[in-house]
Amino acid sequence: MSRGIVIFDLDGTLIDSAPEIHAILNAILTEEGGTSLSEGQVRGFIGWGTDHCIGKAMGAAGLDPEDSDLRERITAAFLDRYETQHENTKVYPGVVDTLELLATYGFALGLCTNKATGPTRAVLANFDLEARFDTVVCGDMVGVQKPDPAPLLKAAGDLGGGPVLYVGDSEVDAQTATAAGIPFALYTQGYRHAAVGDIEHHEAFDHFDKLPAVVARVLRPGTA
Ligand SMILES: O=C(O)COP(=O)(O)O
Ligand SMILES: [Mg+2]
User: Fold this and answer.
1) May I ask which residue range the UniProt record assigns to the signal sequence (predicted)?
2) CA-to-CA distance for 22 and 30, rounded, in angstroms?
């Protein structure tokens, strides 16, 4: 039997990155003459990729997202600061122990995020998480982003195929999993833009300590 695969989303699932993205974007947007945004506003823009988030934030701050010079300058400044600034980012409780446990059980672990490669690598390296994943698929790697199923299918393919569970925090992840024909576990403490009941999922959980049992129920029916 091929080994089970668990693939994770990043922002709002493994890490609480909204305070950091908010702090960095607000500093840049206000330097460029924009108004300051609330963390809640910025949280609402996360999940569709770095470029989407920057465009939405520019619009909300009163800057023109169609001004390509300005957008490029803001993007470059954002990526530059995100390389080294992680003091406002937190790994959600129980994540590290759960990743370790699942690896010990023999599951292959993957990451599939809409975050661009640069910021993904920077934040994984900062929290010493990179080596925990057997594959990392970022938003700029396959030409399309979630909710297109291609990035998730690439991650599953990289891990050799087999029974897969996708773990994410938002309707974007749920749509991606459905389109890929992969079961979905919803982490309810991230950046959902809809009620739990309105997001298609096989299981929902509110703490990573509960994930190993979810994985066992979905991937190894009869063992939990
Ligand atoms: O929107 C982003 O940049 C990343 O979001 P994700 O990790 O939840 O896919
Ligand atoms: Mg997410």
Assistant:
1) none
2) 12
Which ligand minimizes its atom distance to the CA of 54? 1
In this prediction the pTM is: 0.95
Which listed residue (9, 16, 169, 173) is catalytic?
9
- Domains of the chain, CATH where assigned: 5-16+90-219 (3.40.50.1000), 18-84 (1.10.150)
Ligand 1 pocket, 176 CB below 6 A?
no
Hey, which of 7, 10, 121 would you mutate to test ligand 1's pocket, going by the most ligand atoms within 8 Å of its Cβ?
10
What is the residue-level pLDDT of the chain in tens, covering all 224 positions? 568 999 999 999 999 999 999 999 999 999 999 999 999 999 999 999 999 999 999 999 999 999 999 999 999 999 999 999 999 999 999 999 999 999 999 999 999 999 999 999 999 999 999 999 999 999 999 999 999 999 999 999 999 988 999 999 999 999 999 999 999 999 999 999 899 999 999 999 999 999 999 999 999 775 54
Pairing verdict, β 5-8 and 108-112 = parallel
128 is catalytic: no
Q: From the alpha carbon of 12, which atom of ligand 1 is closest?
A: 8
What is the atom index within ligand 1 of the atom nearest the CA of 21?
3
Strands of the chain, DSSP E: 5-8, 15-16, 90-91, 108-112, 135-137, 164-168, 184-187, 203-205
ipTM surpasses 0.90: yes
